[in-house]
Specification:
Shape: elongated
Number of helices: 3
Number of strands: 0
Order of helices and strands: HHH
Helix content: over 70%
Strand content: under 5%
Largest sheet: none
Amino acid sequence: MATNMLMYRSFWLTMVGGMLTGMGNGSVFGAAMMCLVGRGSFGNWGGIGYLAYNPYTFTGFVDWCMIVFGIAYVVILGIAMARHGRLEAEAKG
């Protein structure tokens, strides 16, 4: 049975748009944080294999910022689409 709810019709748009927007903002946040604190105590820049996702490396910190921001934006867009779909359904009544 097909459903016409906006949240289900826009699933891939929400996933792709949310991850792209969130990861873009996460990379800017990570870069700004690195500019603010400098290299800090990062002994290794990471970037190879599992070190790319180790938050104790320079690249790993930025990668985790990107992942967290991406997931947050997907959740925010999902909530927004669900609420908008509900309002749209009520208006069509």
